Amino acid sequence: MKRLIFVLLSLLSLAAHADLKVFATVPEWGALAKEIGGKHVDVFIATGGLQDPHRVEAKPSLIAHARNADLVVATGAELEVGWLPVVLRDSGNPHVQPGQPGNFEAARAVRMLEVPTRLDRADGDVHAGGNPHIQTDPRNFLKIGEALSARMAQLDTANAGDYQANFKNFSERWKIAIAKWETSAASLRGMHVVTQHKAFPYLYDWLGIVEVGTLEPKPGVEPSVSYLAQVMTDVETKKPRRVIRAAWNSPRPTEWFSEHAHVPAVVLPFTVGGSDQAKDLFSLFDDTIARLLEANK
């Protein structure tokens, strides 16, 4: 009887060990890892949908999760530069350090927008590799998902076939969803908008939306009332039809501009968990398109 119990416990231990432990820095990559990994992954997500991904505290709990991870999935492009390097360093986990197979940066798989021509801290939170908010264009998930499934297969060869099959299934469903979203959002093409923080260039590139102004004087810098008034004057002739912010942005600048410029304000979820409706990747974009169209009525 004792031998049987020992064998059962050993099998359970092996099954638990076979799971790929994934540390995702932001909700979108955690959701994608679950789509691809299925039953083979145990995913920990370091941040929430209403949290500023630039500003995260390197808490001991994050370090502990990184210490036990087989794979860290991050955006890269300096999005997590203020906290992830500390988490990885203090984790002491050699497998997930930069340059190792256990460290995956999504930004390396896609074309980057808004790559700066100069770098100066006086310009605010400018990212050398380009704007890191790549998850707002659903087309990027196909390239990132393909690269991520290959990395998972590399790290967990026993389940490589399942990772590839799961990605194929996700890809097929995702392409159908993209076509549906594009049809629904056709009326948004060419629309002029003002954005609080430059969080949506990839979304605008996908849908053909034109950003005519931003409320922040520099990326990550809260605008004064006088600056907001100047933006309102500057964009008046361009006739913006929306002022848009991410769910984690402070509401004050967008609300001020909306009230004084008489432009509808739209709060977009930005990532999974950014709204009650955005519960997974598919509903994230369902809700994003719905919110943009609702303000169009």
TrEMBL record:
InterPro entries: Bact_metal-bind_prot9, ZnuA-like
GO biological process, alphabetically ordered: metal ion transport
SUPFAM superfamilies documented for this protein: Helical backbone' metal receptor (SSF53807)
Superkingdom of origin organism: Bacteria
The protein's name: Zinc ABC transporter substrate-binding protein
Keywords tagged on the record: Signal
A GO MF term: metal ion binding
Signal peptide: 1-18
